[in-house]
Amino acid sequence: MATTTKAAAPAKKNSGFGGVKDAWIILVICAIAGYSVWYFVMGNPDNFIGGDRSGHPANLLGTVYKGGFVVGLILTLLFTVICLGFERFFAIKSASGKMNLAKFTAEVKNAIKAQDFTKAKDLCNKMQGSVGNVVLASINMYQTVETDSTLKKAAKIAKISQAHEEATQLEMPTLQMNMPMVATIVSLGTLTALFGTVLGMIGSFQALSAGGGADSMALSAGISEALVNTASGILTSWVATVVYNFFSNKIDKLTYALDEIGFTIAATYDSTHNEA
Hints:
Layout: H1 23-42, H2 60-65, H3 69-96, H4 101-113, H5 117-127, H6 129-146, H7 153-176, H8 179-210, H9 216-272
């Protein structure tokens, strides 16, 4: 009776930190924190001359408070991207495994080329994380098709490559989770800054149109609101850009390493088996 090829063993679930799936919870918490800092810390009466929030600020915190409610929104975005930065750091660190990525890649490639799959599996179990899971799934499929006499060589290589790709796709959501939100904040920081700047300039023009020295305070407040929102929004976009590019680079390195190992596994089978 002809035997059938067994399906590749599914990638072992990562036992480490897999990231925060409900990122909106982080956003809500950061919104509460952002507006609390804006109103209670920056809006503390001690930060204003005479203890009056509507008066002149006595220090930098009071000046930033004058930026208006948009400051709270920008702080929300800033706190969110900082929290997501820490969340991505621990999630990607867990997915990267416990060994140095370059060292693991070199050692597992050498073991596969030598067809020492016991050592390769030991390395995967030692590595753990998404990288170890994907490589282990590919090795399992290699050994499965190796004993299958019903498939041609090209079909076996295709199955090895397919198992590698499927295991990679299974792990990719953990790596890319919440990155779209960080990318969105890159743009939202600048747009929110522009929104706050426009509101501040509207207040300044209203003060000018009213005329008279009595409106000089309103003019000053409008200019302050515009400049504060511009500066804080640019800072938020700057932080978000750094966080996004940093972790995108980390994810790319993991992906390239997996592709390199996957190619090595398929190429090793091709070079060590002579069947049709």
